[in-house]
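Human: If only I could read backbone structure tokens as easily as an amino acid sequence. Underneath my words sits a plain record pairing an amino acid chain with its backbone structure tokens. Take your time, and here it is.
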Amino acid sequence: MKTESAMRKWTLIGISFFLLNQTIPAQDQVGCTQLLEDAREAYQAGMVELVPELLNPCLESGLAGEALQEAYKLVINAYLFDYLPDQADNLMKDFVGKFPDYSTAPDDPGEFVLLFEKHHQELVRQQITARQQEQQERERQAEITRRQQVDRRETPVEKKQFGTLGFALGGNIALPRLTEKYSIGDPALDAGSFTVSGPGFHVGGIWNLNLGRSSEATFELRYTRLHLRYDGAPFSFVSYQYQEYQNFLGIPVSMAVMFNPRSRVNVYMRFGMEVDYLISAAASATRSYTETGSIYLRDVELEKTKITVTRKPMSLMGSGGLGIKFPFSGGKIFLEPRFHYGFLLSNNPEHRYDTQDLTWLIYHVDSDFRVNYLTLSFGMVWNLHKSQKL
């Protein structure tokens, strides 16, 4: 029996060395399967030093699944049995990495089980650490996203848009002022003066351009109709009431400064300039005698007549006022009183006597005057965002 066992042992050694000396490109499946069987018999026969030499090439390629798992176990146990702890430790690390779900079997040697548990626990710790790092990274990214969303919500409207576009309409009261009085009689004795007349109106478009958090530039195109009234008394026995209507197109340019830019409801101050072009002017008048009772002293009425030629075609105005804006979805509503100050004469002195009916029927002669007026505007504007294309 001993002779038979020894012959078997030496036969196995011979076969193994023969197979090791063969040139097997990349260790095909058939060759590695045969080597696994030989390694198993060598391990059982106590020739553990042959197992790594037989199976190490097949651990890289040639085996898979349970066969690869058994090959790893054989080589690791062979290293442990042969007192090669470093090699066993390195290979166990690879084994646990490839087979993380492996559970030790009852027939696994104690040294193998201890070494496996050591590396398996290390792998679990690494996985837990990796998951924690991934979770921390997700939380960090979520916090960054949350802060960006909060920043976007807290960012003032002015930062999200470059301006607003809308319209304005309202009423006005003309406040003309005399600079030099003229009269068909003695100007010093003429008690004539401008008085408060009926209201006019205006309507136009608005474009606001943001200059920062607390200021904006405003460009307008506005149609305005003014109503002027003059009560004259060129002689002691006669007086008249003169009414004038001016229609002009203006281009106001102004700047608004916010008192409370961070508030939803904005209160602001506005100041600017305006160039106006006169479209048309017309006048009507009624002359009355101070003495009544005679059929020859009836009132004289002059129906509306054009006086455009007697007025300056261009005027320059300064303006200032206060306003308040209320937000709504997509824009703002505003209410704004404004005072307009005329720098130039409204009448044309060269054509002072051109309207004969006014001069000889009504006894009215244009005095030199400039036009001021008050406006009260209501309007709506809509936000123009940076991503919006006009």
About this structure: Residues 206 and 220 are 5 Å apart (CA to CA).
